[in-house]
Amino acid sequence: MAIDKATVLRIAKLARIEIEDEATDGLADELNAILTWVEQLSDVDTEDIVPMTSVVAVKAPQRTDNVGEATPRDELLADAPEEEDGFFVVPKVIE
Amino acid sequence: MGVYRIEGESGEWEMVVGLEIHAQVVSKAKLFSSAPTEFGAKANTQVALVDAAMPGMLPVINGECVRQAVRTGLALAAEINLHSVFDRKNYFYPDLPPGYQISQYSQPIVGEGKIEINLENGETREIGITRLHLEMDAGKSIHDMRPDATFVDLNRAGVALMEIVSEPDIRSPGEAGAYIRKIRSILRYIGSCDGNMEQGSLRCDANVSVRRPGEEFGTRCEIKNLNSVRFVMKALEYEAIRQVEILEVGGKIDQETRLFDSGKGETRSMRSKEEAHDYRYFPDPDLLPVDLEADWVEELKRELPELPDAKKERFIDVYGLSVEEAGVLVAEKEIAEYFEAVADGRDGKLAANWVTGELFGALNATGLDITASPVSALSLGGLVDRVADKTLSRRIAKEVFEIMFDTGGEADSIIKDRGLKQVTDTGAIEAVVEQVISDNPGKVAEYKGGKDKLMGWFVGQVMKASQGKANPQIANEILSQKLNV
Amino acid sequence: MSALTDLTIAQSRIGLEKREFSARELTDAHIRACEDARELNTLVAETFDHALERADAADKRLAAGEDGLLEGVPIAVKDLYCTQGIHSTACSRILDGFEPPYESTVTENLWRQGAVMLGKANMDEFAMGSANVTSYYGNVINPWRRRSDNKPLVPGGSSGGSASAVAAHLALGAIGTDTGGSIRQPAAFCGIVGLKPTYGRCSRWGMIAFASSLDQAGPLTRTVEDAALMLSAMAGYDPKDSTSVNLQVPDYRAALTGDINGLRVGIPAEYRLDGMPAEIDTLWRQGVDWYRDAGAEIIDISLPHTKYSLPTYYIVAPAECSSNLARYDGVRYGLRETGGDLTHMYEKTRAKGFGAEVQRRIMIGTYVLSAGYYDAYYLKAQKVRTLIARDFEQAFAKVDVLLTPTAPSAAFAIGEKMDDPIAMYLNDIFTVPASLAGLPGISVPTGLSEDGLPLGLQLIGRPFEEGALMNAAQFLETVAQFTVRPPYLTGGV
Ligand SMILES: [Mg+2]
Ligand SMILES: [Zn+2]
């Protein structure tokens, strides 16, 4: 199986975590150790076994279509790292 | 009308299209929060804590959205899945606060269905529906507020959408247009989506490929976020030709996401394409699976209103309308309802003529919607009655209609006030005829000398003398009697 | 006056009702204890002024005879709970300074019953850890010390601050959260009682998520009776949490009858591990003997998929966390590291904001959900999880509770087991299976290791039968007579 450097970088990209170059090898080793360890699950026969989606056997509750109060805008934006004119602001997205 | 083909240097190509329609569910509150869904509010004023993905906030399903999705599925003759699951679709984007969209992936609430589309040439075609699932909308990113920044408004974040996915059954821009119009019509009939494309309540993504007719499917491109039927059709036209041009010179189509530039009428590759998507779908552990009762679904099915196709059949059967007339009248629920109110207890064909003729003409000219028509269905019915009982000639009736449209009055009072009643009294018409004959001895001589065509002229004179009130048919009869002695 | 901090919650409630002391006096005593114990680093935010205000309000309600279940009781709250206008960071740098404009359902329930918050308790970052060494605010110190050396010990984790605070008598009780053992294991390490209720018993609304299908709120207390009191106040259906279960919350204290006659206690064979310290095994056998001697029926049972629990957990929990923690992106709140384009902002923010263990689990979780690996890892793990739950279901057809050790060792020193993530993960080997099955579990201190450290036994119960579980646990508590005080309290530190 083995997670190589490229895989570490691909996963880090997907997870949006910057990885220092010198940390990549160590991380690859750690992830490999963990994944090798969890690999033992392949010993379990799970033919015809339904995967668990919830540990509680109840029906999903449903809300009625009532409008509640929206969060006051100043509260919503209170902790925003950058905010302007009532908008959250992020570095320019290029499509 | 033949099949749609793209001419290439080396021969003909066929377009293969599947559409994904995102239709906003009509609901007061969002899919997973009680924040309002109203359009046009100030930025970030309609955001619940869970919509902004504040730490520890949890989603709870809005039952109304589930109900509307099931009704829509039923209206699309689709299979309703009594057990469905909400999944997380993971990706980072600033207008997607949790870093995932809650959607339905492997177990959607609605499975396979089908609809019939009506083509311009009067033909119909069946288009398969692959699935319909519920998902939440993202917020809005605004890129033109500052050159170095993107602004994020979360008002739409969490609004319920139904994603309706078609089979790749569509073969021309015209079919795509007809498909969207039909879906829109059905959604509006049952009231699950308002179908407003300008406000973004209905958006469309198109998967397009081309192939030699009858051969295997080609590589497809996805064109994102088309927000009008016209744009969908233009984008498809452009994209198919683009692909054909590549293939004709031995090139290969890259499977990619493209954007339609409505200004230039072109599609272009999205720059972010090099980043492969890996959405890491998995069932949302914050939500339990949705389990529906079969009885409840049956009840929704029974309560469904009459749908456009059934209504069309009935209009043809009951009112004796042509396929075209019926098609026009059922396209919009409001028009169909208006028509039925006019036709109620009257000659359906005549009612249809007035609705599609005078009324549509006047509405078009003034840019009004049928729901804002100054002439109510009841009033138009009153006018149709006067035409049917020959109180009004067609010409006078049109005049009355114009007055009604401008002033909103009733036909009968306008007729009375202005003395526009058609004269059917034979004696009165006979007097006018005699007057016309005695005033025009020369024309009478010409007529008697064999110039038959003058009959029309005489009728015109009678009508003129009676200020249009004489029944032209009776005038005609009396004239022939008098002139042919 | 030190006596006030030695009370149990139940005793303090009697004292308050009899006006032997006021809520303010009780709170004041605990505030002073907290101030004296800052070296333990149990609280990451002290809310003493707020506590005194609440205590005064409690005194008014006591005077008016309108007191709630926990009126005037000073407690510590794990920093994973969102508390309105108060430091709520999951002890992560990425949320440093975050003060939510909302209050979690569980804490709201506690305040309604009159509890008084002393402060926010330290914890492993985002509840990921078993030693409370991953907190952005530094590690927590266990009030216990080994006889053999005087090295500072970990309190266990992730609810390490909560456990240490209760063990050091800084609070009468505390709330923690348990995802794979994060209440039970630190309770065992600190010599106190820790209860993880059935999944769905307490609302998760306002509790910062780690792994949604596993996270559950619960109390850490010095007695089983106190756990019963606290759970009665915390628990309840919450329409804001879709996974919360709409069941009546019983009077848990009334369930503590002391009667265990005919109780069927299951002993799962698979929990007897190779290389398990003898003292753990001895403690376990002692527990079996106690029950047998008191007239309970001891039944050997098998939970065949036990050994797959940890690997299953270390797929499911990271997968959920990788998605749950995607919201920490520097856009709406918390840390933002600037520089470069949007993607760089995300990557730098998350690299700076998350500690190593959190990053590791996000990476694992991202990997096991990624294209081509989902079936082999995540789906497989959820299938095995079904089998693990089924094992328990079959066992509970034959027994009423299961008796196991809580942890495979006593508390260890800071710095030990730190270089190998898997060695650290093994701490939760006995607690994780019940978490995967959503079952209630409780740890009760029942003895000391040879080196003088507390050891706990775990009882696992049927879903939503926390009352019966606590009744069985109280028997253990009574018979074990665990009265040794940690060296921190006896001047041994
Ligand atoms: Mg799509
Ligand atoms: Zn979609």
Report the radius of gyration of chain A as a whole number of Å: 22 Å
How would a crystallographer describe the biggest sheet of chain B? 9 strands, mixed
Principal-axis shape of chain B: elongated
Q: How many runs of DSSP E, i.e. beta strands of chain B? A: 17
The total number of structural domains of chain B is 3
Structural class of chain A: alpha+beta
What separation lies between the terminal Cα atoms of chain B? 54 Å
Question: How many DSSP E strands of chain A?
Answer: 3
> Which shape of chain A, going by the Cα principal axes?
flat
Mean pLDDT of chain A: 92
The poorly predicted ranges of chain A are none
Major sheet description of chain A = 2 strands, antiparallel
> Strand portion of chain A, in percent?
5-15%
Strand order of the largest sheet of chain A: 2-3
Please count the helical segments of chain B.
Answer: 15
SSE inventory with pairings:
The complex is a heterotrimer of chains A (95), B (485) and C (493).
Chain A: H1 5-15, H2 24-38, E1 62-63, H3 73-77, E2 83-84, E3 87-91
Antiparallel strand pairs in A: 2-3
Chain B: E1 6-8, E2 11-24, E3 61-62, H1 63-75, E4 83-84, E5 87-90, E6 100-103, E7 113-118, E8 124-136, E9 140-146, E10 149-153, E11 160-166, H2 173-190, E12 202-211, E13 221-226, H3 229-248, E14 257-261, E15 266-269, E16 282-283, E17 290-291, H4 294-303, H5 308-319, H6 323-330, H7 333-343, H8 348-366, H9 377-388, H10 394-407, H11 411-418, H12 426-439, H13 441-448, H14 454-465, H15 472-483
Parallel strand pairs in B: 13-14
Antiparallel strand pairs in B: 1-2, 2-11, 2-12, 4-17, 5-6, 5-16, 7-8, 8-11, 9-10, 12-13, 14-15
Chain C: H1 9-17, H2 23-36, E1 43-46, H3 48-64, E2 74-78, H4 105-112, E3 116-121, H5 160-167, E4 173-178, H6 184-190, E5 193-196, E6 216-221, H7 224-234, E7 264-268, H8 278-293, E8 297-301, H9 309-324, H10 342-353, H11 356-369, H12 375-395, E9 401-405, H13 421-425, H14 432-436, E10 441-448, E11 454-460, H15 466-480, H16 487-490
Parallel strand pairs in C: 2-3, 2-4, 7-8, 7-9
Antiparallel strand pairs in C: 1-3, 4-6, 5-6, 5-10, 9-11, 10-11
Helix pairs in contact in C: 2-3, 5-6, 7-15, 9-11, 9-12
Bound molecules: magnesium ion (MG) and zinc ion (ZN).
